[in-house]
Amino acid sequence: MNKPSYRTEKDSLGNLEVPFDAWYGIQTTRAIHNFPISGRTPDKDFVHAHVLIKRAAAIANRQGGWLDEGLAKAIVAACDQILAGQHLDQFVVDRFQAGAGTSHNMNSNEVIANLANVALGGERGRYTPINPNDHVNMGQSTNDTIPTAIRLTALAKLPRLIDAVTTMAAEYQRIATEEADTVKSGRTHLQDAVPTTLGREFAAYGWILRRCASRLAETRDPLCEIGLGGSAAGTGLNTAPNYIENVASELARLTGEAIRPAPQLAAQMQSMHDLQHLSSTVRDLTLELIRIANDMRLLASGPRTGLGEIVLPPVQPGSSIMPGKVNPVMFEMLNQVCYQVLGQDAAIAAMTAAGQLELNVMMPALGSALFDAMDWLTHAVTATTERNLQGLKVDRERCRDFLHQSVGLATLLNTRIGYAAAAEVAKESERSGRPVSAIVAERKLMSREDFDALVLEAAHGRVAD
Q1: Is 401 within the bounds of a domain?
Q2: pTM to 2 decimals?
Q3: pLDDT tens for residues 120-138?
Q4: I need a labelling partner for 75 at 20 to 30 A (CA). Which of 265, 317, 322, 461 fits?
């Protein structure tokens, strides 16, 4: 006998056919039909976080005396299967879905209920003895599980992003240490400026990236304050005794994070402030990465007609028409990702402001935008560090040549002959194309050797400008 393709389930809207082998049920199936939007299923960390909430809720409801021991164990066992990586293909609701994430919440409830019921000898779609709403969703609402899951997801992704940024910062510092004595021309306004060292230049990149990583780490603690237990509209409606404290304690145990009930449960449903703050901090990092990536592309420009002070490892041919051309593709990719992340932050800001009265219904798209931004940036920073920074070479001779050609060296004469006289030297150098050191020696202001020594001292910060 052939196995049927579909089973029939019923909800408050009527009957609907559900794929026979699906672990999800009728409400998930309605969402599949309603929202064929992006083709993107939920973020895996988000699925994991939401199932963690269902597991913790079962424990808290058992502790409160509302959920039978046997049913609680079955729900926990079903959750553990998913947390171990099984049945992830059953989480199928599009990222753009019903407001607040009700569709995803029911997707989780149905999958967990069906897994638990089959383990207890029941059938998929019969929802006995465990019902998706009455048992898996006990004491919960989309209003409190979805924002809590977004927080837990962000907490899971943060260490990866911080590690990627810290690793990039360490690579810049490594190069800075190696090139501490590589003197080069500084540039301001993209014009010749005072001498500096490539070590100082790269150390600054590393320092600001470490600061960005530190600022990201500071966002963790506010994210640990959850509104779970607020149920609908922060009222705590239909929750077991001590549920709010118990479910937070269980989530803290499961995640290793300092999860705790927020002092204002309703606010955690109305406001996306903590998530917006995280997004803003990610944006701040992104702005620095754009600036640094552009510097890398400038410093590597050439090889003959650009700056060419650094040489990036070739990772692929750079042109389909120009033989031998190699482009700074990793930093180009990083730029592109950063611009996309800025777009995600703008969307998050708009959706943060779009909350109304007791709930922000934009949470599914808001969470998705935040997850994308964090993942994309993590992967892009890691790839750029591994494929380009770790093999970066410095053309020290090129740096030295540019240094001695720089009109900015005239600045070193300010304290000796005054700004106006030094400006005349700079103009002469620019007009004639001769190095400042030659003009200084010709005018008997200083020997060429003494001036070169002054340049080195200035580059290392041992004399005043």
Answers
A1: no
A2: 0.94
A3: 999 999 999 999 999 999 9
A4: 265
